[in-house]
Amino acid sequence: MGKIKVGIEAKILSDASAGIGRYVTELCRNLSYDPELSLILYSPSAFNSEIVGKLDKVRFAAGSVKNPVGKQLWLEIVLPFLLKRDEIDIFWAPAHKMPCFVSSKIPKILTVHDLCWKIVPETMKKTTRLLDSYKMPGALRKADIITAPSKSTAEDIAKTFGISKNDINIISPASNLQNVETDDTIISKYGLARKKYILFVGTLEPRKNLERLLKAYSLLDDSLKNDYKLVIAGAYGWGGMKTADIVSQLNLTEYVIITGQLGDDMLASIYANSYFLALPSLYEGFGIPIVEAMSLGVPVLTSEVSSMPEVAGNSALLVDPLDEDSIYKGILELIENKVLYEKLAAGAVESASVFSWQKSADKLSHLIKKMINK
Protein backbone atom coordinates (compact mmCIF):
# COMPACT_ATOMS: atom_id res chain seq x y z
CA MET A 1 0.00 0.00 0.00
CA GLY A 2 1.24 3.49 -0.89
CA LYS A 3 1.35 6.50 1.35
CA ILE A 4 -1.85 7.84 2.90
CA LYS A 5 -2.73 11.08 1.10
CA VAL A 6 -3.87 13.71 3.59
CA GLY A 7 -5.55 16.80 2.13
CA ILE A 8 -5.49 19.85 4.40
CA GLU A 9 -7.52 23.06 4.08
CA ALA A 10 -4.77 25.59 4.76
CA LYS A 11 -6.21 28.97 3.81
CA ILE A 12 -4.89 30.33 7.10
CA LEU A 13 -1.32 29.73 5.91
CA SER A 14 -1.73 32.37 3.23
CA ASP A 15 -1.50 34.91 6.04
CA ALA A 16 1.13 35.65 8.69
CA SER A 17 1.70 32.79 11.13
CA ALA A 18 -0.07 33.38 14.43
CA GLY A 19 -2.40 31.35 16.62
CA ILE A 20 -4.16 28.76 14.46
CA GLY A 21 -1.64 29.36 11.68
CA ARG A 22 1.19 28.34 13.98
CA TYR A 23 -0.79 25.27 15.05
CA VAL A 24 -1.34 24.13 11.46
CA THR A 25 2.27 24.87 10.45
CA GLU A 26 3.88 22.98 13.32
CA LEU A 27 1.58 19.95 13.13
CA CYS A 28 2.09 19.71 9.35
CA ARG A 29 5.86 20.04 9.79
CA ASN A 30 5.94 17.17 12.28
CA LEU A 31 3.42 15.05 10.34
CA SER A 32 5.48 15.47 7.17
CA TYR A 33 8.28 13.35 8.67
CA ASP A 34 5.95 10.34 8.97
CA PRO A 35 6.99 8.01 6.12
CA GLU A 36 3.44 6.65 5.81
CA LEU A 37 1.83 10.04 5.12
CA SER A 38 1.82 12.39 2.14
CA LEU A 39 0.48 15.90 2.85
CA ILE A 40 -1.12 18.27 0.34
CA LEU A 41 -2.04 21.75 1.57
CA TYR A 42 -4.77 23.71 -0.23
CA SER A 43 -5.48 27.44 -0.20
CA PRO A 44 -7.45 29.82 -2.46
CA SER A 45 -4.46 32.20 -2.53
CA ALA A 46 -0.66 32.07 -2.45
CA PHE A 47 0.95 30.67 0.69
CA ASN A 48 3.05 32.79 3.04
CA SER A 49 6.64 32.32 1.81
CA GLU A 50 8.05 32.08 5.35
CA ILE A 51 5.68 29.20 6.12
CA VAL A 52 6.48 27.44 2.83
CA GLY A 53 10.16 27.53 3.88
CA LYS A 54 9.31 25.61 7.05
CA LEU A 55 7.35 22.90 5.22
CA ASP A 56 9.78 21.45 2.69
CA LYS A 57 8.25 17.96 2.71
CA VAL A 58 4.66 18.84 1.77
CA ARG A 59 2.92 19.69 -1.49
CA PHE A 60 1.15 23.03 -1.94
CA ALA A 61 -1.88 23.70 -4.13
CA ALA A 62 -2.81 27.37 -4.22
CA GLY A 63 -5.31 29.40 -6.22
CA SER A 64 -4.96 33.09 -7.03
CA VAL A 65 -8.14 34.47 -5.47
CA LYS A 66 -7.82 37.78 -3.63
CA ASN A 67 -11.26 38.90 -2.43
CA PRO A 68 -12.87 37.35 0.69
CA VAL A 69 -16.09 36.19 -1.01
CA GLY A 70 -14.10 34.58 -3.82
CA LYS A 71 -11.95 32.73 -1.27
CA GLN A 72 -15.03 31.26 0.42
CA LEU A 73 -16.45 30.16 -2.93
CA TRP A 74 -13.09 28.56 -3.80
CA LEU A 75 -13.17 26.58 -0.57
CA GLU A 76 -16.75 25.44 -1.14
CA ILE A 77 -16.56 24.61 -4.86
CA VAL A 78 -12.98 24.29 -6.10
CA LEU A 79 -11.44 22.54 -3.07
CA PRO A 80 -13.82 19.51 -3.12
CA PHE A 81 -13.01 19.06 -6.84
CA LEU A 82 -9.24 19.17 -6.11
CA LEU A 83 -9.56 16.65 -3.28
CA LYS A 84 -11.30 14.25 -5.67
CA ARG A 85 -8.81 14.91 -8.48
CA ASP A 86 -5.84 14.25 -6.17
CA GLU A 87 -7.46 11.06 -4.80
CA ILE A 88 -7.16 12.23 -1.22
CA ASP A 89 -7.56 9.47 1.39
CA ILE A 90 -8.36 11.74 4.36
CA PHE A 91 -9.35 15.39 4.63
CA TRP A 92 -8.33 17.53 7.61
CA ALA A 93 -10.14 20.83 8.21
CA PRO A 94 -7.94 22.45 10.91
CA ALA A 95 -9.77 25.77 11.35
CA HIS A 96 -13.38 25.24 12.46
CA LYS A 97 -15.06 24.99 9.03
CA MET A 98 -15.78 22.19 6.57
CA PRO A 99 -16.63 22.73 2.88
CA CYS A 100 -20.21 21.59 2.18
CA PHE A 101 -19.44 19.56 -0.94
CA VAL A 102 -16.50 17.40 0.16
CA SER A 103 -17.26 13.86 -0.99
CA SER A 104 -18.98 11.70 1.62
CA LYS A 105 -16.53 8.95 0.64
CA ILE A 106 -13.56 10.89 2.07
CA PRO A 107 -13.11 10.47 5.86
CA LYS A 108 -12.94 13.86 7.56
CA ILE A 109 -11.17 15.29 10.61
CA LEU A 110 -12.32 18.63 12.01
CA THR A 111 -10.39 20.75 14.51
CA VAL A 112 -12.37 23.26 16.57
CA HIS A 113 -10.02 25.65 18.37
CA ASP A 114 -12.56 27.64 20.35
CA LEU A 115 -16.18 28.72 20.59
CA CYS A 116 -15.59 32.47 20.65
CA TRP A 117 -18.71 33.09 18.55
CA LYS A 118 -20.81 31.44 21.26
CA ILE A 119 -19.01 32.39 24.49
CA VAL A 120 -17.59 35.86 23.81
CA PRO A 121 -19.37 36.98 20.60
CA GLU A 122 -18.83 40.65 21.41
CA THR A 123 -15.07 40.19 20.94
CA MET A 124 -15.37 38.98 17.33
CA LYS A 125 -15.67 40.69 13.99
CA LYS A 126 -19.32 40.39 12.93
CA THR A 127 -18.63 38.59 9.63
CA THR A 128 -16.31 36.05 11.29
CA ARG A 129 -18.82 35.47 14.09
CA LEU A 130 -21.68 34.87 11.66
CA LEU A 131 -19.60 32.57 9.48
CA ASP A 132 -18.41 30.48 12.45
CA SER A 133 -21.89 30.24 13.97
CA TYR A 134 -23.35 29.23 10.60
CA LYS A 135 -20.63 26.81 9.48
CA MET A 136 -19.56 25.08 12.70
CA PRO A 137 -22.72 23.00 13.41
CA GLY A 138 -22.68 21.52 9.88
CA ALA A 139 -18.94 20.92 10.04
CA LEU A 140 -19.32 18.96 13.28
CA ARG A 141 -22.07 16.83 11.72
CA LYS A 142 -19.90 16.01 8.69
CA ALA A 143 -16.76 15.20 10.70
CA ASP A 144 -15.82 11.58 11.34
CA ILE A 145 -13.31 12.69 13.97
CA ILE A 146 -13.35 15.92 16.04
CA THR A 147 -10.28 17.35 17.74
CA ALA A 148 -9.83 20.29 20.13
CA PRO A 149 -6.72 21.92 21.61
CA SER A 150 -7.77 21.64 25.28
CA LYS A 151 -10.15 19.83 27.62
CA SER A 152 -11.84 23.16 28.25
CA THR A 153 -12.66 23.63 24.56
CA ALA A 154 -13.79 19.99 24.30
CA GLU A 155 -16.20 20.64 27.17
CA ASP A 156 -17.50 23.78 25.44
CA ILE A 157 -18.13 21.79 22.25
CA ALA A 158 -19.79 18.93 24.14
CA LYS A 159 -22.05 21.27 26.09
CA THR A 160 -23.04 23.40 23.10
CA PHE A 161 -23.66 20.63 20.56
CA GLY A 162 -24.62 17.66 22.74
CA ILE A 163 -21.54 15.65 21.71
CA SER A 164 -19.90 13.26 24.17
CA LYS A 165 -16.58 14.56 25.51
CA ASN A 166 -15.20 11.07 24.92
CA ASP A 167 -15.72 11.57 21.17
CA ILE A 168 -13.48 14.65 21.08
CA ASN A 169 -9.72 14.08 20.82
CA ILE A 170 -7.37 16.54 22.54
CA ILE A 171 -4.50 17.57 20.26
CA SER A 172 -2.77 20.51 21.90
CA PRO A 173 -0.39 23.16 20.59
CA ALA A 174 3.08 23.48 22.09
CA SER A 175 6.11 25.75 21.93
CA ASN A 176 9.13 25.44 19.70
CA LEU A 177 10.76 28.65 20.90
CA GLN A 178 13.06 26.87 23.35
CA ASN A 179 14.87 25.46 20.29
CA VAL A 180 15.04 28.75 18.38
CA GLU A 181 18.30 30.68 18.09
CA THR A 182 17.48 34.03 19.68
CA ASP A 183 18.01 37.41 18.06
CA ASP A 184 18.67 39.96 20.81
CA THR A 185 18.51 43.03 18.55
CA ILE A 186 14.94 43.63 19.74
CA ILE A 187 16.24 43.79 23.33
CA SER A 188 18.94 46.28 22.35
CA LYS A 189 16.56 48.37 20.25
CA TYR A 190 14.32 49.13 23.23
CA GLY A 191 17.06 49.20 25.87
CA LEU A 192 15.66 46.20 27.73
CA ALA A 193 18.90 44.34 28.40
CA ARG A 194 19.25 45.48 32.00
CA LYS A 195 15.57 46.12 32.76
CA LYS A 196 12.87 43.92 34.19
CA TYR A 197 9.73 44.09 32.10
CA ILE A 198 6.25 42.57 31.95
CA LEU A 199 5.37 41.06 28.58
CA PHE A 200 2.10 40.72 26.68
CA VAL A 201 2.09 38.59 23.50
CA GLY A 202 -0.94 38.23 21.25
CA THR A 203 -2.99 39.76 18.47
CA LEU A 204 -4.18 43.21 19.51
CA GLU A 205 -7.94 42.68 19.52
CA PRO A 206 -10.79 42.91 22.07
CA ARG A 207 -10.67 39.26 23.24
CA LYS A 208 -7.14 39.75 24.56
CA ASN A 209 -8.43 42.24 27.16
CA LEU A 210 -5.52 44.59 26.57
CA GLU A 211 -7.37 47.71 27.63
CA ARG A 212 -8.06 46.29 31.10
CA LEU A 213 -4.46 45.13 31.35
CA LEU A 214 -3.26 48.66 30.55
CA LYS A 215 -5.66 50.22 33.05
CA ALA A 216 -4.55 47.74 35.73
CA TYR A 217 -0.89 48.46 34.94
CA SER A 218 -1.55 52.21 35.18
CA LEU A 219 -2.54 51.73 38.85
CA LEU A 220 1.04 50.82 39.78
CA ASP A 221 3.16 53.51 41.42
CA ASP A 222 5.31 55.38 38.91
CA SER A 223 8.47 54.02 40.55
CA LEU A 224 7.28 50.44 39.89
CA LYS A 225 6.24 51.27 36.32
CA ASN A 226 9.70 52.69 35.78
CA ASP A 227 11.32 49.51 37.09
CA TYR A 228 8.89 47.17 35.30
CA LYS A 229 8.02 48.43 31.83
CA LEU A 230 5.16 46.78 29.94
CA VAL A 231 6.13 45.39 26.53
CA ILE A 232 3.34 44.60 24.05
CA ALA A 233 4.24 42.28 21.17
CA GLY A 234 1.78 41.26 18.48
CA ALA A 235 0.10 42.16 15.23
CA TYR A 236 -2.86 44.52 15.10
CA GLY A 237 -6.14 42.65 14.81
CA TRP A 238 -9.60 44.14 14.44
CA GLY A 239 -12.02 46.10 16.62
CA GLY A 240 -10.35 49.49 16.62
CA MET A 241 -7.74 48.44 19.17
CA LYS A 242 -5.72 51.64 18.96
CA THR A 243 -3.31 50.58 21.65
CA ALA A 244 -1.06 53.61 21.33
CA ASP A 245 -4.06 55.91 21.91
CA ILE A 246 -5.04 54.03 25.09
CA VAL A 247 -1.43 54.17 26.28
CA SER A 248 -1.42 57.94 25.71
CA GLN A 249 -4.78 58.49 27.45
CA LEU A 250 -3.51 56.61 30.52
CA ASN A 251 -0.25 58.63 30.56
CA LEU A 252 1.77 55.47 30.04
CA THR A 253 3.84 56.51 27.02
CA GLU A 254 7.17 56.40 28.87
CA TYR A 255 6.42 53.01 30.43
CA VAL A 256 4.84 50.98 27.58
CA ILE A 257 6.70 49.65 24.55
CA ILE A 258 4.75 48.40 21.51
CA THR A 259 6.93 46.24 19.24
CA GLY A 260 4.47 45.00 16.62
CA GLN A 261 4.62 41.40 15.41
CA LEU A 262 7.97 39.64 15.86
CA GLY A 263 9.62 36.69 14.15
CA ASP A 264 10.36 33.58 16.22
CA ASP A 265 13.99 34.53 16.87
CA MET A 266 13.11 37.95 18.33
CA LEU A 267 10.02 36.55 20.06
CA ALA A 268 12.15 33.92 21.83
CA SER A 269 14.53 36.65 22.95
CA ILE A 270 11.83 38.95 24.28
CA TYR A 271 10.15 36.07 26.17
CA ALA A 272 13.40 34.79 27.66
CA ASN A 273 14.37 38.22 29.01
CA SER A 274 10.93 39.10 30.40
CA TYR A 275 10.01 39.05 34.09
CA PHE A 276 6.62 37.46 33.52
CA LEU A 277 3.96 37.10 30.83
CA ALA A 278 0.65 38.91 31.39
CA LEU A 279 -2.19 37.33 29.38
CA PRO A 280 -5.51 38.15 31.13
CA SER A 281 -7.63 37.21 28.08
CA LEU A 282 -11.42 37.06 28.23
CA TYR A 283 -11.36 33.63 26.60
CA GLU A 284 -8.81 31.27 25.01
CA GLY A 285 -9.28 27.94 23.29
CA PHE A 286 -5.73 27.22 24.41
CA GLY A 287 -3.38 30.22 24.72
CA ILE A 288 -0.09 29.39 22.98
CA PRO A 289 1.82 32.35 24.57
CA ILE A 290 1.36 30.72 27.99
CA VAL A 291 3.28 27.61 26.89
CA GLU A 292 5.83 29.66 24.96
CA ALA A 293 6.64 31.73 28.05
CA MET A 294 6.80 28.72 30.38
CA SER A 295 9.03 26.78 27.97
CA LEU A 296 11.63 29.52 28.48
CA GLY A 297 11.30 29.48 32.28
CA VAL A 298 9.02 32.53 32.48
CA PRO A 299 6.05 32.52 34.91
CA VAL A 300 2.61 33.70 33.83
CA LEU A 301 -0.22 35.92 35.01
CA THR A 302 -3.38 34.79 33.24
CA SER A 303 -7.16 34.47 33.57
CA GLU A 304 -9.05 32.05 35.76
CA VAL A 305 -11.46 31.21 32.91
CA SER A 306 -11.71 28.81 29.93
CA SER A 307 -8.53 26.87 29.07
CA MET A 308 -5.96 29.14 30.70
CA PRO A 309 -5.73 27.46 34.16
CA GLU A 310 -5.53 24.06 32.43
CA VAL A 311 -2.67 25.14 30.17
CA ALA A 312 -0.70 27.10 32.79
CA GLY A 313 -0.73 24.31 35.37
CA ASN A 314 1.26 25.28 38.46
CA SER A 315 3.21 28.10 36.84
CA ALA A 316 0.66 30.90 36.82
CA LEU A 317 -1.08 33.39 39.05
CA LEU A 318 -4.76 33.47 38.05
CA VAL A 319 -6.86 36.64 38.00
CA ASP A 320 -10.42 37.71 37.15
CA PRO A 321 -10.16 39.14 33.60
CA LEU A 322 -13.25 41.32 34.10
CA ASP A 323 -11.84 43.03 37.20
CA GLU A 324 -9.07 45.60 36.68
CA ASP A 325 -8.34 45.56 40.41
CA SER A 326 -7.81 41.78 40.33
CA ILE A 327 -5.36 42.16 37.42
CA TYR A 328 -3.58 45.03 39.22
CA LYS A 329 -3.24 43.00 42.44
CA GLY A 330 -1.92 40.05 40.44
CA ILE A 331 0.76 42.20 38.79
CA LEU A 332 1.73 43.66 42.18
CA GLU A 333 1.83 40.19 43.75
CA LEU A 334 4.26 38.88 41.14
CA ILE A 335 6.47 41.95 41.57
CA GLU A 336 6.51 42.00 45.38
CA ASN A 337 6.11 38.36 46.42
CA LYS A 338 9.51 36.96 45.49
CA VAL A 339 8.80 33.56 47.09
CA LEU A 340 5.70 33.07 44.93
CA TYR A 341 7.53 34.36 41.86
CA GLU A 342 10.45 31.96 42.31
CA LYS A 343 8.07 29.05 42.91
CA LEU A 344 6.17 29.74 39.66
CA ALA A 345 9.37 30.28 37.69
CA ALA A 346 10.93 27.05 39.04
CA GLY A 347 8.10 24.92 37.67
CA ALA A 348 7.59 26.75 34.38
CA VAL A 349 9.71 24.57 32.06
CA GLU A 350 8.23 21.38 33.54
CA SER A 351 4.68 22.74 33.10
CA ALA A 352 5.43 23.51 29.44
CA SER A 353 6.97 20.08 28.82
CA VAL A 354 3.50 18.49 29.04
CA PHE A 355 2.90 19.93 25.56
CA SER A 356 4.89 18.76 22.53
CA TRP A 357 4.33 19.31 18.80
CA GLN A 358 5.76 15.86 18.10
CA LYS A 359 3.45 14.17 20.62
CA SER A 360 0.46 16.02 19.16
CA ALA A 361 1.46 15.12 15.59
CA ASP A 362 1.82 11.48 16.65
CA LYS A 363 -1.72 11.56 18.08
CA LEU A 364 -3.08 13.03 14.84
CA SER A 365 -1.12 10.51 12.76
CA HIS A 366 -2.56 7.68 14.87
CA LEU A 367 -6.12 8.96 14.26
CA ILE A 368 -5.48 9.19 10.50
CA LYS A 369 -4.11 5.64 10.26
CA LYS A 370 -6.88 4.28 12.46
CA MET A 371 -9.51 5.74 10.10
CA ILE A 372 -7.83 4.27 7.02
CA ASN A 373 -7.35 0.83 8.58
CA LYS A 374 -10.91 0.47 9.94
From TrEMBL:
SUPFAM superfamilies: UDP-Glycosyltransferase/glycogen phosphorylase. Keywords: Transferase. One of its GO terms (molecular function) is glycosyltransferase activity. Pfam families: Glyco_transf_4, Glycos_transf_1. Residues 187-346 form the Glycosyl transferase family domain. Residues 19-174 form the Glycosyltransferase subfamily 4-like N-terminal domain. CDD domains: GT4_MtfB-like (cd03809). It comes from the Bacteria. This is Glycosyltransferase family 4 protein.
